[in-house]
């Protein structure tokens, strides 16, 4: 039995992430999806809470023929102990999946096997592009799996992103 670990911020979880997981599913029996920067929310780069991202991802994974676990992982101040922190929060795993150079280095220094996972249609399926489109409320739905669109609508996520964009620009909450 092989269990993999795939970490990302998933702000939001998009069709590119889902394609990566479908590909990983062919290589493992079980997969832990780590929600990175779980302590972050309500900013332009990290608009969604860990709980909201758990809902988005759990619903998207429901149709896959794969045992999955979705685990929030908060950031910590010391990179040197981050892998131990991940291991404390996650079911044990045999292989990690990432393309982030820092994440790859930290896992390799802890003697954990790391596989790289190429993203798809990167010109469109990229978190920053999607958050920009959401801020302008333009053509963002087509880039996200249906359960993610439904979750964002349920929590009024577009209004939130537009408000935090105002906050980030002025350094204080928009009084409206
Ligand atoms: P990230 O900062 O969320 O993403 C970095 C970039 O890589 C983004 O543009 C992301 O695109 C892209 N990306 C994500 N998955 C990819 C893939 N399979 N192929 C190509 N590009 C991909 O970093 P992350 O690697 O996704 O997540 C790492 C998490 O671990 C972060 O939350 C980070 O804070 C955390 N971490 C914490 C510590 C610490 O606390 N000391 C140390 C190391 C890492 P999208 O925006 O489209 O996803």
Automatic annotation (TrEMBL):
Record protein name field: Nicotinamide-nucleotide adenylyltransferase
Pathway annotation from the record: Cofactor biosynthesis; NAD(+) biosynthesis; NAD(+) from nicotinamide D-ribonucleotide: step 1/1
Compartments in which it is found: Cytoplasm
Annotated EC: 2.7.7.1
Keyword flag Aminoacyl-tRNA synthetase: no
Catalysis: reaction(s): beta-nicotinamide D-ribonucleotide + ATP + H(+) = diphosphate + NAD(+)
Domain Cytidyltransferase-like: from-to ranges: 5-133
Pfam family, one: CTP_transf_like
Cellular component terms per the entry's GO annotation: cytoplasm
Keywords from the UniProt entry: ATP-binding, Cytoplasm, NAD, Nucleotide-binding, Nucleotidyltransferase, Pyridine nucleotide biosynthesis, Transferase
PANTHER family registered for this protein in UniProt: BIFUNCTIONAL NMN ADENYLYLTRANSFERASE_NUDIX HYDROLASE, PHOSPHOPANTETHEINE ADENYLYLTRANSFERASE
A biological process term (GO) from this entry: NAD+ biosynthetic process
GO MF term (any one): ATP binding
Similarity comment: family membership: Belongs to the archaeal NMN adenylyltransferase family.
Alphabetized InterPro entries for the sequence: Cyt_trans-like, NMN_Atrans_arc, Rossmann-like_a/b/a_fold
NAD listed as a keyword: yes
